[in-house]
Design a protein that fits this description.
heterodimer; A: alpha/beta; 23% strand; B: alpha/beta; 31% helix
Chain lengths: 343, 288
């Protein structure tokens, strides 16, 4: 991809490979994943459970724990007015890594109750993040915290600061987590299924909030979700993952209106559309195979309606290729019929 | 609601389930009551699917569970029609209820916690028959095999344990267990919410096929409105323990009358970047 020349990239991931050592052997939870995040944009990573989307996010913050490890690839952060940081090369416990975590890149987790400490007040937890990353006094930190809590739409910030997480509802807790993540004005925000545990009405409000804060603060966002409706509302670009591989990457309009990879096509078709009582929902046949028993060739071919015998079920799994029209897809069919060139 | 001239299978009238709240410490006194389900009435015809939607805490699960007497209702009537007789489920004792349990079954949300990990699939699916002494020995095994095939699994899966199966397959096992006694009423409590989209579509199709084949009546509890729209004939919207609107599916989605229904519908994100989400919460914020 000739990307870095004219686009303003804030985070670049190249050939990322994450493996987990288990009793059944070494599994690649993420395999040769390559993508980059443009400054000020929202990139959604979409996929079903166990497709490696969270593992990808965790490796950006170097949060992969044993028995998992980053087995290859390079993650580079390009902060504004600073020299690029090679995150994969940082040693554990280095000062730079601590600066990156929570300072330059921060994360919103799925379950707001487990992401907050039940024995510390909200104010305490937000101020902790500020004091760790900014050179301010406790008084100033408190002021910043109150300001941020107001910004995420929690009424009476001064009073709420003294309260504990259990005194907040699910939606309000998620607002607190968002405040905590954004208070240090990170370059990149990683949101890992931030609305999955919430009701649709609360989800709509939280999406609104993330969108407007992202616009105001100019943060770049990696938004992980399995909900294509949410993707349509929030994302600029979409990367679709299946079994630890990136299968398609394009703008949100291209992916949702004109998907290329058969998996994306199937995923979109199997959504119950808001038309009442179709005869049957078109579904993708079979189940997601286990990472321990990956099929040869393209990992999607046993479930693929367009699978070509002798092409899709042999050899290594296909790599991301660029079609003549500039779209990125990893599919043998695309290579054969559309004259793709390897990236 | 009886416009087809068919007697309803289930008639729920002024039905409530209240949970008392006690003061803490000695001499526990009842200080308040939570009206989880408050004065709810509706009918379901045989073969119909009623969708029950609402936010978390709106009482939809409590309502479904109290109807099956998994929770004891506070008051009201639940007239259940079976073998030409109409029986009020609320008034029955546990002993009188047991034979009726074969008629009403439940499919649960989480396929990972609703199956006993120490029982084989055959035992799990056959257990209802065993408990109600409806079959044993070879006949029981045959009926289990039959049911497994019906839900799209293989008879040889009978010997295996739940951990050997994926989420979608486990949900099929849960469905087999619920349907093996040929119930007439099935409550699906968020039966597809825990599944991935591609598998969810398979299970929805399976539920619809089985409904046609076995003439089942579903109460489909869910928070995913597009799934409910797909599967339901009629939809009831619950809010704070009350049914605020109950209508034909098409009517409720095309022309919602109640302000709460309108708000709920406006919050669904469409998988289309050209349809923008315009959401305004109701003026009374219950979210604190």
């Amino acid at each position: 991809m000739a990307q870095n020349e004219n686009k303003d990239i804030v985070l670049d991931i190249k050939d990322l490979k994450v493996t987990f050592t288990t009793e059944e052997g070494v599994l690649s939870a993420v395999d040769r994943v390559t993508f980059s995040l443009e400054r000020g944009k929202v990139l959604a990573i979409v996929g079903e459970s166990a497709c490696g989307k969270s593992v990808t996010a965790f490796s950006i913050l170097r949060l992969i724990q044993k028995p998992g490890q980053i087995a290859g690839g390079k993650i580079t952060l390009y902060p504004k007015n600073k020299s690029p940081i090679d995150i994969t090369a940082l040693t554990e416990k280095s000062d730079m890594l601590y600066q990156v975590r929570g300072g330059l890149i921060s994360m919103i987790f799925q379950e707001p109750m487990t992401a907050l400490s039940p024995v510390h007040t909200i104010g305490n937890q937000i101020c902790e993040a500020i004091l760790l990353h900014q050179n301010v006094t406790v008084k100033e930190a408190e002021k910043l915290a109150i300001e941020m809590i107001g910004k995420v739409g929690i009424p009476e910030p001064e009073r709420r600061l003294q309260q504990y997480p259990h005194e907040f509802s699910g939606g309000m807790r998620q607002r607190v987590v968002i405040a905590m993540a954004l208070v240090c004005q990170p370059e990149v925000l990683i949101a890992d299924e931030p609305t999955t545990a919430l009701d649709v009405t609360i989800q709509a409000q939280i999406l609104d909030l993330i969108k407007s804060l992202q616009r105001d603060l100019g943060t770049s966002v990696i938004f992980i979700t399995h909900d294509l409706g949410v993707v349509a509302q929030i994302a600029d670009d979409v990367a679709v993952m299946y079994l630890g591989r990136l299968v398609e990457q394009a703008t949100v309009r291209e992916v949702l209106k004109d998907p290329l990879h058969p998996y994306t096509v199937g995923l979109l078709k199997s959504l119950p559309r808001n038309e009442t009582k179709q005869a049957r929902l078109p579904s993708i046949i079979g189940n997601v195979p286990s990472l321990t028993h990956l099929p040869a060739g393209c990992p999607f071919h046993p479930r693929c309606p367009d699978s070509i015998p002798g092409v899709c079920d042999v050899g290594d799994n296909p790599v991301m290729e660029m079609l003549p029209n500039g779209r990125l897809v990893s599919c043998c069919g695309a290579r054969k019929f559309k004259g793709a060139t390897t990236v | 609601m009886n416009d087809h001239g068919v007697e309803p299978l289930l008639k729920v009238k002024n039905f409530s389930k209240h949970f008392p709240i006690y003061s803490q410490g000695f001499g526990r006194q009842q200080i308040d009551v939570v009206k989880a389900v408050d004065n709810v009435s509706f009918n379901i015809s045989p073969g119909e699917t009623l969708g029950l939607v609402g936010e978390s805490g709106s009482g939809k699960t409590t309502c479904a569970r109290s109807i099956l007497r998994a929770l004891k209702p506070t008051n009201g009537e639940v007239i259940f029609r079976t073998n030409g007789k109409a029986i009020d489920l609320v008034k029955l004792t546990e002993r009188q209820l047991k034979p009726l349990r074969t008629q009403m079954q439940m499919i649960f949300q989480d396929p990972f916690s609703s199956l006993n990990p120490r029982m084989t699939v055959g035992d799990i699916v056959g257990e209802p028959l065993y408990i109600h002494k409806l079959a044993k020995g070879k006949e029981l095994i045959d009926r289990v095999d039959d049911m497994l095939v019906k839900v799209g699994m293989k008879p040889e899966h009978r010997q295996r344990y739940p951990h050997a199966f994926s989420g979608g397959q486990r949900q099929r096992i849960g469905i087999a267990r619920a349907l093996i006694m040929h119930p007439s009423l099935v409550v699906c409590d968020e039966a597809v919410s825990a599944l991935d989209v591609s598998v969810q579509a398979q299970v929805i199709n399976l539920l619809e096929d089985l409904q046609e084949e076995l003439n089942l009546t579903y109460i489909f509890v869910a928070h995913d409105l597009s799934v409910v729209r797909h599967i339901s004939d009629r939809v009831a919207v619950m809010h704070q323990g009350k049914i605020v609107e109950i209508e034909e599916t098409e009517t409720i989605f095309e022309n919602p009358q109640h302000a709460y229904t309108r708000m709920l519908l406006s919050a669904i994100p469409h998988p289309d970047p050209d349809v923008k989400l315009v959401f305004t919460p109701l003026s009374d914020p219950t979210d604190t």
